[in-house]
Design brief:
Number of strands: 16
Bound molecules: adenosine-5'-diphosphate, magnesium ion
Strand content: 25-35%
Helix content: 25-40%
Strand order of the largest sheet: 14-13-12-15-16
Number of helices: 9
Order of helices and strands: EHEEEEEHEHHEHEEHEEEEHEEHH
Structural class: alpha+beta
CATH class of the largest domain: Alpha Beta
Number of domains: 3
Amino acid sequence: MRIVILSKGYANYSTQRLRQEALSRGHEVRVINYAKCYVTLERGNPVVHYKGEEVRDVDVIIPRISQSLTKYGSSIVRQFEMQNVFTTTSSIAIVRSRDKLRSMQLLAKAGVGIPKTVFARETADFKGVLEQVGGAPVIIKVARGTHGNGVVLAETPKAALAVMQAFYVEGVNFLVQEFIQESAGVDIRAFVVNGKVIASMVRQSLDDDFRSNLHQGGEGVEVKLTTEERRIAIKAAKAMGLSICGVDMMRSEHGPLVLEVNASPGFAIEKVTGANVAEKVIEYAEQAARNGHSKDKVGA
Ligand SMILES: Nc1ncnc2c1ncn2[C@@H]1O[C@H](COP(=O)(O)OP(=O)(O)O)[C@@H](O)[C@H]1O
Ligand SMILES: [Mg+2]
């Protein structure tokens, strides 16, 4: 197959691993920096250009769109979709996953456990909002944060009010969440490919940070999931319409709770667990492209 990896970091570990595995399985591979692509739209004849040339004859694209370029990147993905090129992640699923409010709505509707969450715009009924999530300490997060940036632990009602006011004044959408104290600083990442958990790790912050993101200095260790955790990870992936994703969960007193579902999960989990994630992704791409184009069924 002719595979295009849409990535703005040619040298990134994940990009390189995907490239290696695709090559070793006999595919033609190109890494294209979607940030430098442009699309010309003309009636009936849309074309994606890269480095002065038309990008043509592609069987599959594997998008690795970064959070900071969600809009632009997903519109490039959409262009390929419109040309009937199979994509391992649909443009709509990428956009959806980058909005925490939308994600929480979909997960909750699908019956996936999430921390009790409120989204509000104003701070008028501030007390009511805090009560809904069990009172301070609470977690406040911006709707479009990533890597742990934009997630705040407000330990007192006063602090919570100040943070909410600050976000409100800046016009930032945020959500207020029950603080899962019993497993603060620890979360689980399940890497899902095509309805299966293919690798899982527990991430632990190395200091007193309540955030366990590897980008905030967290450390990963391989972990075996319970049957329930596995089931929930798969359900969450399905609810988000993502065939390839990283599902983040916390082990709470009332069972596993999903924090978020990442559409472009990092491959550092390979180093932690020894699993060949890149190979599974390429296998999925081969299989899915053969079976034709799947439509997004999430409907929101
Ligand atoms: N409700 C919560 N209770 C306790 N810890 C949380 C909660 N929400 C997030 N965290 C911690 O903060 C980290 C980042 O939160 P997350 O929602 O995944 O945002 P990001 O997209 O920035 O990674 C999580 O990995 C977890 O360790
Ligand atoms: Mg996260």
